[in-house]
Structures are given as C-alpha cells and as structure tokens.
Amino acid sequence: MTPIAVTIAGSDSGGGAGIQADLKTFSALGVYGASVITALTAQNTKGVTGIHDVPPDFVAAQIDAVFSDLAVRAVKIGMLSQPAVIEAVGAGLDRWQQTQVVLDPVMVATSGDRLLNPDAIEVLKRVLIPRALVITPNLPEAAELLGAPLARDEDEMRAQAVRLMERGARAVLIKGGHGTGAESVDILLAPGSFTRLAATRIATGNTHGTGCTLSSAIAAGLAKGFDLVAAAREAKAYVSAAIAASQRLQVGRGHGPVHHFHVWW
Fold first, then answer.
1. Which of 7, 207, 221, 256 is catalytic?
2. Could you tell me the CATH number of the domain that includes residue 11?
3. Residue in 211, 213, 236, 256 annotated catalytic
4. How is 64-127 classified by DSSP, letter by letter?
5. pTM for this model (two decimals)
6. What mean pLDDT is predicted for residues 28-50?
7. Candidate list 41, 45, 110, 210, residue with the active-site label
8. Mean pLDDT, the chain, whole residue set
9. Dihedral sign from CA coordinates of 212, 253, 118, 89
10. Structural domain of 73
11. Residue 156 lies inside a defined structural domain of this protein
12. E-strand spans in 151-234?
C-alpha cells in the first residue's frame, strides 16, 4: 500500500517552509502527501508580512475530508497560531485515532517573525504535546516551552529533553542547528533510549524551512514503517544533504530554502 502522510500546518507563499516544504519532503522520500492548511502567510525569504488564520471549523472540515478517505500512516503538525485551531486539531487527532504524530512546535520563523501567539503556547502544551509521538523543538523553542535559558551544550539539551518528557512529551528531539561548533547535533530522547544525531555543520544562509523539513522527514519515515529512531536518522541525513546542496539554488534575497530535490535536480 502507498505510504501516506499528512501535514497540518501553515502555508508559506515563498515555498521554502510550511506546507510547501512538507509536501516536497514527503515526495522526495517516497511518500504521498496530503495537507490540512491552518493559516496562510504572506511570506518570502526575507520575512513574514501577514498571517491569515483559517477558521477552526474549516480546519476540522479538512481533517475529516482527508482522514475519512486516505489511509494515513503518519501526521506532521507545524504552524498553529491560534488556541481554537489547536483545539480543533487535537479533537481531529482523537476522532481519527492518529498516534503516529510528529509535532514541530513552530513559534518563530527563520526570519525572526513570530508565528505562534503567546496565549496559544499553554494550549499547545496541554492539547497537542501529550498526543504527539515526538516533539521536535529547536533550541529557542525548547527554552520557551520550559521557560528556561537556551541550552548551551549537549548536556543541557539532554536535560531539557528530560524536563519536556516530565511535562508530558512522549519523546523529544531537540534540534541543535542554532548551536555552534563543528557539528550540528540533535538529541533524541525516548522512553528507554537516547540517540545522538550529528552532522557536519554547514556554513550557509540557506536555512529557511529546515525545521519543517526535518519534522516532515521523520513523519515520512514513520509512514514507511520505520521506528522512531530509524525515521529520525533518515531525516537527519536527508536534511543535512538538502542544506549542503542549497547553494545550488538561487532563490530570493534573504534566507534561502534548502534543496529538497537535490538528488534529482
């Protein structure tokens, strides 16, 4: 049967992140992608100039349309800016008994623009984090979820992952792309396992959509039947290669996108 994954996220009109990055990633990794759009953004490589939220009842309608027809094996959740939309997504996951869920707690775009309203953070913690198989915050997002300083090294990243699990997360992958050093290290903590995912840090400004791409790549692996650790390893390798190949793209005048189709172009 064809592996199918669904992305529940916002649209990036510039094509580098959000729904667009997720669908490209699914396709690149051999998975059929469907989508539930939670918000429209007026966005390019330089920043976000506007956000138009999709009404919660229409988010629910999209969920019901997709899940009532497609045999979905994994779900990636990205930008959810409003509390009522978060509630609608949580109810939809329950309604369609979805457990293979990758939650990327998108709070701020690469450009620095805020994508999650502050009053929605507590709702995200209560409604979606316990329903996710894994959450994938970057260093600033992990710190904000905990109300803590930014992790400065791998030991602090692991400690924050432990704290997030103590607060209800089933598994945590903290992304180290905002860190420093020769390696870009992600920390995956799950019940009974700890995995260090490392790749050579690549000096490039083309990092738009990296978080979206990693979380959707993990969902693609889950849709293909991989366990969480195997899915995360494949995702890390794919994203690292897409970043390395990003200089081959000439897109925009700000933070350019990664090269999702680097194998074929």
1. 207
2. 3.40.1190.20
3. 211
4. HHHHTTS---EEEE----SHHHHHHHHHHHHHTT---EEE----B-TTS-B-S-GGGHHHHHHH
5. 0.95
6. 95
7. 210
8. 93
9. negative
10. 4-135+207-228+236-248
11. no
12. 172-174, 183-190, 193-200
